[in-house]
Structure formats: structure tokens, C-alpha cells
Specification:
It contains 16 helices and 31 strands. The chain is an alpha+beta fold and 571 residues long. Strands 3, 7, 8, 9, 10, 11, 12, 21 and 24 form a nine-stranded mixed sheet that branches. Strands 16-14-15-17-20 form a five-stranded mixed sheet. Helix 1 crosses helix 12. The longest helix has 21 residues. The chain binds one RNA strand of 77 nucleotides through helix 14 and helix 15.
Length: 571
RNA sequence: CGGGAUGUAGCGCAGCUUGGUAGCGUACCUGUCUUGGGAACAGGUGGUCGCAGGUUCAAAUCCUGUCAUCCCGACCA
């Protein structure tokens, strides 16, 4: 590629809209351009990188025996009504109508469509298992798109769906995908972690997430410091490690706590540790209101609540609902006299003589005790894990790191095949629903997270595998015949060697070219200047280390190849 | 959806308090000169100041509404 004939609109300054590194650098490097909130143009340089990710994904998926197809991005409402998700999916589903007023949606995922395809054509166990995938643009009307490609509304995703005749087969398909995913992220040169995950609204029985570790990640990964357990925050199990204090129960008393609503405010006002306070959150589980109590220094985990009640929706109650449930205003809820059932976290169940809201304006009650003042409907794990908590597998300690979810695999079971009547005949001639799995990779998000993980103050430092160009040939004096002649020879040789070079043939000053090459993150730069050429040499600079070496013109391309080889192995 | 903020040239920003010819840097174009780390000089192109109302002789500036974007939170295969 010739730089002068290509289209890389780099920016010297960061557009004000960008907050995180990958977003800033993608804008500055001329990879993307925003069209609307969460909707981006993929400019040529960005597209090359996205295609690289797609190629790796495609290769690994094919090797794993999956078969590519392409489904429509616009889907009829009927299929979604059939699976029950038309109502369930909520506002994230972009619903549209055609000219005949028929309802459609822009596909956020394709379980319905693939199930429809498979039930139409596969009716015998002899054709199973099968794993079909596509790489396609999705649209999810996110409440708050942010961070550029990291959380866009429109994005490119690889989604695969497996169909098996029985549970054992489905487990094999799942494991097969898990391994394929590891190969994919390794091939992309990313540092990642596989974690236990909640199944969320896609449903199903178990699930793993693939997290790229980066400080700017939106997800928290809980892992154990002494075994291989890791899970996302929603899922990470908090064990009941508490022993109830044998302290004598004190009589309870109401105290006024003016203007103190939050646990921190109450703790500060009463001058007690927040761990001696129990907060009571009113949540709406489907249509029912319940109270959930967690220790003041803990956070309630909505996913755990949702799973405990096997609910479809769990939301924090509105102010009106809180008054309805407690008879008191928001901020002062407590379990005593509550009109709805109260559930306690393990940690609360071990507390004695604790402080709770009194269900009265600006009042809390001290020395409350369950068993005496109120009863729990049940006790379970309802909170987020904290660093230092006991590992649920080995008793080690949890540590917390940030990650970006780039892949998610689910074992779906018969969720869709049952609701959509997708069946086959088994070897006894009996009709059975397919056992399904689904497997997603955020292709555009992989590109963004690669930048989060690989950058410095000068710009992007692409892993060789994802670099839009592998070598940047920089002739310093475009008008110098000797320099240009050598640059062209080197460039052509690199091209023949398949090293995907770009030659910066622009009539720009050295600084401009160096800065752009560094910004867009080309792994290896070959600099051809008059001075070094007089010695029969060129310079090779490695983007990642910044180290420059002088090598003879003869053999400089082989040296570049060797460096690239080494770089891709170190990833 | 709750809270906060911002919309002025491709990008980054000033001007608004106290209404009176729309500015700076960068990018872009032309020329001279320069050429190993974002050169210099000279000249130039480009904006109905987000949009719609209102107040006023006069609105980027004041008022009302609206739209868009961003941040925090809630939510999220």
C-alpha cells in the first residue's frame, strides 16, 4: 500500500467525545468516525483490522468444524414472539415496521433465526451435531453506548450456534467451542481470562465469558489467588463463612438520623462501622416486591437475586413502591414491620445488634436482631464478592481485576428448541428437541480491546497478528532518487514476502512520518535516509520496544521478517 | 430512565458575565524556502455560532422550548 494513495486521516488532537484510550486512539489513527451515538464508520485502516480479527475467527471456527452462513440483520417479529423474547427482550431490541405496518426488528442476536433454519432442514439425528456460525453486524439499542467501539450500538459479532441430539453431545460441542475461543484469542495476541458467568437474558444452563484484561474494562473479574477459579462479579459465589456472634441481644431503640440516608452517612452520623449496619433494599421481582438485606459494606447483586427467584426481571423499586412495602420513605427502609417478605444475605444472618432503617423519616433502629424483631423468609448469597473474600472452591482469597468481555459462550439446552418446536427424530424414531449452545465474539470489541491492552503514549502498538500493516517503509527524502529507488525495492520485496508493507511516500518531514507510523502502530519500521544509505544501510525500528538497529540494505527484509516472527511468538 | 455538562471552521478551543463587523491554534490550498522527530515566512479557502421561537433598533451573547453529544449512576446477549 502506498500511503499517499491510501486514506488514513490521522488527527493531531483528540476529539472531545473520547474518554478511553482505544476510542481516542482509533479516532486519532483515522480508523473510525462516529455517525451517531454508538454508530461508527469503519474507515479503511479500521476495516483492515476488523477483517484481520474476522479472518482469525473464521479460520479457528472452521478448524473447529463450525460452518459459516449468513443470516439477515432484519428479522420478523413472529419468530421473536414464538420464542417469547419479543416482550422479554425490552428496549434494547430495535423494533421497526415495514410499509405494510408489519413488525420487524434489527437483529441483536440470532437464536430465533438459526433455530428456524435448523428446524426446517434437520429432522434426523444422523445430521447431528452441527455448528453454524456467521460474522455479521448486530444492533442493540444500548441505554448508554460509550467508549467508541467498546460499547457501540451497532457492532460486528461472530455468533455460532450448536445443535446436538443429547446433553452429552452438547457438552462436547460446548467444550469444543471453549477451546476454539482460547485459540482465537491467543491467535489475536491478547491476554485474556476465561471466567464463570451468569447466563443473563439469553438464558440457558451454564456459561463462560472470555475477558481481555485491561484497566479500562467495564467488567470485574473475581479470581482466586491460590486456585484456578475465576468468575465475573455477577456470578462469583460468596460462601457462608460467617459464625454468628454469641453477644447478648440488646433492646432495640429508635434514633433520629437527620439527613443521613446512605450507609456511609448513617455510619458517620452514628459513629459506627458500616459493617454494623444492614441495608434493606426493596426490589421488584417480576411483579412482586421483596426486601433484600445485605451488610452495610456489601453490595447487593441483582443477578443473584434474579437467579434465586428464577425471575425474568428484577428492578430496584420506585419511591412509591418502597412506601407501599415499608410504609416509610426511601432511604430509611428496614425489616421490622415490613409488609413484604425479607430475605437476608449470609453475612446479615450472622449479625447481632445491628442498625437498620426504621421505616420512618430520618430514623434508624439500633440493636435490631432477626429471630426476635423480625424473621427472614430465607437466607442466601445475595451480594457481590469483595477482594479478600474466601474462595468458594479452595478457601483461598479472591482478587479482583478489570476485564473487557470479548466472548461469551452459553449452553442453552432446549430453551429455544422447545419454545420454537425445533425437533428431530432420534434413533428410536422419537421426536426430541435439539440441545443447543450459542457462542459469541464481539469482533469490533476485540479490535478495541487489543488497543486497550497494547498502546503507549505515542499511540497504538498492534500485536503483529492484528496490525493493519506489518512493516512501514519510510523513505525520508521522497525527492532523492537513490533513497526512493531503495525504498521501492525494499517495499516490493516485502510485498512479495507477504509482509503486508505500507510505504510512506508522502512528501512530509521525517517527524510527521515517524509520528504517524507510531500512532497507527505498525510493528516494524524500515527507515531509509541519505546518511545511512551512504553506508549501505537502513534502519529497522521496533514499535513495541523503540529499539533501532542499523542493518545493511541487503537482507534488511529478511531481518524484518525475523523480527516479526519473534514479535508474534512473544505475544 | 435519574444526576451533571457541552453544542461556535475537519479537529482543539476563546468570545457569552456587561447584546453592537465571528476570532485563535491546528488542519487544508498557493508560493518561497527547508528536509533524520509534528519546520519557517507570506498569502488564502472554509462557520446561517445545534435547531425553533421570543425579547430588542440590534442576539453566538438574554429568555423559553427542542434536538444532539458526552460523563456519572441505574440497566445490559
Amino acid at each position: 500500500m502506498r500511503y499517499s494513495r491510501f486514506f488514513i486521516p490521522t488527527l493531531r488532537e483528540v476529539p472531545a467525545e473520547a474518554e478511553v484510550v482505544s476510542h481516542k486512539l482509533m479516532l486519532r489513527a483515522g480508523m473510525i468516525k462516529k455517525l451517531a451515538s454508538g454508530v461508527y464508520n469503519y474507515l479503511p485502516l479500521g476495516l483492515i483490522v476488523i477483517r484481520k480479527v474476522e479472518d482469525i475467527v473464521r479460520r479457528c471456527m472452521n478448524e473447529a468444524g463450525a460452518i459459516e452462513l449468513l443470516m439477515p440483520s432484519v428479522q420478523p417479529a413472529e419468530l421473536w414472539k414464538e420464542s417469547g423474547r419479543w416482550n422479554y427482550y425490552g428496549k434494547e431490541l430495535l423494533r421497526i415496521k415495514d410499509r405494510h405496518d408489519r413488525e420487524f426488528c434489527y437483529g441483536p442476536t440470532h437464536e430465533e433465526v438459526i433455530t428456524d433454519v435448523v428446524r426446517s432442514f434437520i429432522s434426523s439425528y444422523k445430521n447431528l451435531p452441527i455448528n453454524l456460525y456467521q460474522i455479521q453486524t448486530k444492533f442493540r439499542d444500548e441505554v448508554r453506548p460509550r467508549f467508541g467501539l467498546m460499547r457501540g450500538r451497532e457492532f460486528v459479532m461472530k455468533d455460532a450456534y450448536s445443535f446436538d441430539m443429547d446433553d452429552a453431545g452438547a457438552n462436547i460441542s460446548y467444550e469444543n467451542m471453549r477451546q476454539a475461543y482460547c485459540r482465537i484469542f491467543e491467535a489475536c495476541g491478547l491476554k485474556y481470562k476465561v471466567v464463570d458467568a451468569d447466563t443473563g437474558s439469553i438464558g440457558g444452563s451454564f456459561s463462560h465469558e472470555f475477558m481481555v484484561l485491561a484497566d479500562t474494562g467495564e467488567d470485574f473479574v473475581i479470581s482466586c489467588d491460590s486456585c484456578d477459579y475465576s468468575a465475573n462479579l455477577e456470578k462469583a459465589v460468596c460462601v457462608d463463612e460467617y459464625t454468628k456472634s454469641a453477644d447478648e441481644l440488646k433492646p432495640s431503640e429508635d434514633v433520629e438520623t437527620p439527613r443521613a440516608k446512605t450507609v456511609e452517612e448513617v455510619a458517620a452520623f452514628l459513629n459506627v462501622p458500616s459493617a454494623s449496619i444492614a441495608k434493606t433494599m426493596i426490589v421488584r421481582v417480576d411483579e412482586k416486591l421483596v426486601g433484600i438485606m445485605v451488610r452495610g459494606d456489601h453490595e447487593m447483586n441483582m443477578a443473584k437475586v434474579k437467579n434465586y427467584f428464577s425471575a425474568t426481571t428484577v428492578e430496584l423499586a420506585s419511591h412509591e413502591e418502597i412506601e407501599e412495602a415499608t410504609g416509610g420513605p426511601m432511604g430509611f427502609s428496614g425489616p421490622v414491620g415490613m409488609k413484604v417478605p425479607v430475605y437476608g444475605d449470609f453475612a446479615v444472618a450472622a449479625m447481632v445488634n445491628y442498625c437498620v432503617g426504621a421505616n420512618l423519616k430520618e430514623t434508624h433502629t439500633l440493636n435490631v436482631n432477626h429471630g426476635r424483631d423480625f424473621e427472614f423468609a430465607d437466607v442466601d448469597d445475595f451480594r457481590n464478592a469483595n477482594p479478600g473474600d474466601k474462595c468458594c472452591q479452595c478457601g483461598g482469597k479472591y482478587v479482583i481485576t478489570k476485564g473487557i468481555e470479548v466472548g461469551h459462550i452459553f449452553k442453552l439446552g432446549t430453551k429455544y428448541s422447545a419454545s420454537m418446536n425445533a425437533t428431530f427424530l432420534d434413533n428410536e424414531g422419537k421426536r426430541q428437541p435439539f440441545i443447543m449452545g450459542c457462542y459469541g465474539i464481539g469482533v469490533t470489541r476485540v479490535a478495541a480491546s487489543a488497543i486497550e491492552q497494547n498502546h503507549d503514549e505515542k499511540g497504538i502498538v498492534w500485536p503483529v497478528q492484528l496490525a493493519p500493516f506489518k512493516v512501514c517503509v519510510v523513505p525520508l527524502a521522497v525527492k532523492d532518487e537513490e533513497v526512493m529507488k531503495n525504498a521501492e525495492v525494499i517495499y516490493n520485496t516485502l510485498n512479495r514476502m507477504g509482509l503486508e508493507p505500507i510505504i510512506d511516500d508522502r512528501d512530509e518531514r521525517a517527524g510527521v512520518k515517524f509520528n504517524d507510523a507510531e500512532l497507527i502502530g505498525i510493528p516494524v519500521r524500515i527507515t531509509i535516509g541519505k546518511k545511512t544509505l551512504e553506508k549501505g544501510c537502513v534502519e529497522i525500528t521496533v514499535r513495541k520496544t523503540g529499539i533501532t538497529e542499523e542493518v545493511p540494505v541487503e537482507g534488511c527484509t529478511e531481518r524484518a521478517a525475523a523480527i516479526l516472527q519473534e514479535l508474534s511468538q512473544n505475544c
